[in-house]
Amino acid sequence: QVQLVESGGGLVQPGGSLRLSCAASASMHSFNEMGWYRQAPGRLRELVAKFTTSGSTYYADFVKGRFTISRDYGKNAFYLQLNSLRPEDTAVYYCNADSRGVDQDLQPYEYDYWGRGTQVTVSS
Predict the structure, then answer these.
(1) Would the pLDDT of 55 be above 90?
(2) For 28, how many CA atoms within 13 A lie in the half-sphere containing its CB?
(3) Fewest C-beta in 10 Å: which of 30, 72, 81, 122?
(4) pLDDT digits over 69-115, tens only?
């Protein structure tokens, strides 16, 4: 069972920065997509940024130009740099990865992995 563990959340003032990390317990080469979601109180979980299967990056419109996703295969970790933070960025941030393919019996499989989340609070 693959585990993802987030770290780096905290309390920051508006305009400040944080760097979130997601450590994976297995090789990230087994992942198809990996990314970050967030969930604010009373709201649905929403996609923030991700690496697609082709290796390109996707950003939600509300974070374009402020957040940057990156990864380090050598450390089995991926990251989210959050800059120019706003109070509306306050949420629990979750890392996610999926693994899809065909097993040795030619049966398709798909696994979806989630971390437990790290709280980001933007407040003065």
Answers:
(1) no
(2) 24
(3) 72
(4) 999 999 999 999 999 999 999 999 999 999 988 989 999 999 999 99
CA separation, residue 18 to residues 25, 41, 53, 54, 99 (Å)? 23, 20, 26, 27, 28
Q: Is 7 exposed, middle or buried (0-12, 13-18, 19+ CB in 10 A)?
A: middle
